[in-house]
């Protein structure tokens, strides 16, 4: 088993002009399932490849347990990696693919056979041991790739977007399978993905990355409830959060948000924002915080016209015309303007029992405790 730590680790390319990672400080505990999540180019795969020894470190220190691993050869790290492409040998059977790493390391034939049988049983691959990869489904191939890693009992597993080539149903099955295996083996696991659903459902902790920097490291629930900035709020949660320009105003002795023609009171815990009354902020409201109401419009309610309805069975996803609500702000950072441009209309996720039609104007109540408030200039959570 292994504890893996990054200490001020950096990676630059092109003579130091292009930074893939900047001062990454991250400790992955022994036996932990850590997920690195973020958009393409955020540095998550670079960090993973550094652990494996496939990427040189420009600055800082990488430790595996108490050993500095910056210059340690990949074969000396006892790390198993599962790739996005599966990387199976097409001319070998399932059993031979699983056994390959053990044979390369000179394991005894009887030990190899025993471990292959045990691993195949664990992954429900016993009946496929004599088949070639071409005769397997995508999910079965992924399990073989995992088996090749599991059979070695390594210090740590590294998984680089292993489910991205599977359809939605298989991804769901394999998420549960990988989580089950990790719990059984209690092996340190670092899992890279751009899919926030995988991050939220699989990781003990999740590291959200953007442009080579660690934005927030926390449990999935804390990332959802208490994001540190607009980027994390936008990346965690599906459907994505709604951002709206707002003015902080006083209402019945406490702060409230004036969003276009609507007034949304904030909870008592928002008293700390009182010194900012009169200033511009960004309001963040998740789609599931919208509750349909038949009552009149007033404080705590928001009205919008339905542009399109996605019937998802248990839920309806409403695409709403934001009307007089401004969705952008000139003083925001470039990153946060990009976040807001990506969702120029509001979205509301409501119970599927409601009957809502296109072009209908709907009133919603908004739970004050579900409203996030961000600095309009920096995007930092207030």
TrEMBL record:
Location, primary (coarse class): membrane
Superkingdom: Bacteria
Membrane topology according to the record: Peripheral membrane protein
Subcellular compartments: Cell inner membrane
GO molecular function: ATP binding
Keyword presence, Transcription regulation: no
This protein's UniProt keywords: ATP-binding, Cell membrane, Membrane, Nucleotide-binding, Translocase, Transport
UniProt domain ABC transporter: residue ranges: 4-236
Pfam families the UniProt entry points to: ABC_tran (PF00005), OB_MalK (PF17912)
InterPro entries registered for this protein in UniProt: AAA+_ATPase (IPR003593), ABC_transporter-like_ATP-bd (IPR003439), ABC_transporter-like_CS (IPR017871), ABC_transpr_MalK-like (IPR015855), ABC_transpr_MalK/UgpC-like (IPR047641), Mo/tungstate-bd_C_term_dom (IPR008995), NA-bd_OB-fold (IPR012340), OB_MalK-like (IPR040582)
Keyword Transmembrane among record annotations: no
PROSITE patterns cross-referenced by the UniProt entry: ABC_TRANSPORTER_1 (PS00211), ABC_TRANSPORTER_2 (PS50893)
Family indicated by similarity: Belongs to the ABC transporter superfamily.
Cross-referenced PANTHER family: MALTODEXTRIN IMPORT ATP-BINDING PROTEIN MSMX (PTHR43875), TREHALOSE IMPORT ATP-BINDING PROTEIN SUGC (PTHR43875:SF15)
The protein, known as: ABC transporter ATP-binding protein
Organism expressing this protein natively: Ciceribacter sichuanensis
């Amino acid at each position: 088993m292994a504890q893996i730590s990054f200490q001020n680790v950096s990676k630059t390319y092109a003579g130091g002009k292009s930074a893939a990672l900047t001062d990454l400080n991250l400790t992955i505990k022994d036996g932990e399932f850590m997920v690195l999540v973020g958009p393409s180019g955020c540095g998550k795969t670079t960090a993973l490849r550094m652990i494996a020894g496939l990427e040189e470190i420009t600055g800082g220190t990488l430790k595996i347990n108490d050993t500095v691993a910056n210059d340690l050869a990949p074969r000396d790290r006892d790390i198993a990696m599962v790739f996005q492409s599966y990387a199976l040998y097409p001319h070998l059977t399932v059993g031979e693919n699983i056994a390959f790493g053990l044979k390369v390391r000179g394991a005894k034939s009887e030990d190899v056979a025993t471990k292959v049988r045990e691993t195949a049983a664990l992954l429900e691959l016993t009946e496929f041991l004599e088949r070639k990869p071409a005769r397997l489904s995508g999910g079965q191939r992924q399990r073989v790739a995992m088996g090749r890693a599991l059979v070695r009992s390594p210090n740590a597993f590294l998984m680089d977007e292993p489910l991205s080539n599977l359809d939605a149903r298989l991804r769901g099955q394999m998420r549960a399978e990988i989580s089950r295996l990790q719990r059984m083996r209690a092996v340190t696991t670092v899992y890279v993905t751009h899919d926030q659903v995988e991050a939220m459902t699989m990781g003990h902790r999740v590291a959200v990355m953007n442009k080579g920097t660690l934005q927030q490291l926390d449990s999935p629930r804390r990332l959802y409830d208490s994001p540190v900035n607009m980027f994390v709020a936008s990346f965690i949660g599906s459907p994505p959060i709604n951002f709206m320009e707002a003015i902080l105003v006083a209402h019945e002795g406490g702060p409230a948000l004036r969003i276009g023609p609507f007034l949304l009171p904030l909870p008592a815990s928002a008293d700390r924002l009182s010194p900012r009354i009169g200033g511009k902020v960004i309001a963040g409201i998740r789609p599931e915080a919208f509750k349909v109401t038949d009552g009149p419009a007033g404080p705590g309610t928001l009205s919008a016209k339905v542009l399109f309805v996605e019937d998802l069975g248990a839920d309806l996803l409403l695409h709403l015309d934001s009307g007089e609500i401004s969705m952008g702000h000139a003083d925001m950072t470039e990153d946060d303007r990009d976040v807001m441009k990506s969702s120029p209309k509001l979205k509301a996720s409501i119970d599927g029992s409601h009957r809502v039609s296109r072009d209908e104007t709907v009133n919603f109540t908004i739970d004050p405790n579900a409203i996030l408030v961000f600095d309009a200039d920096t995007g930092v959570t207030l």
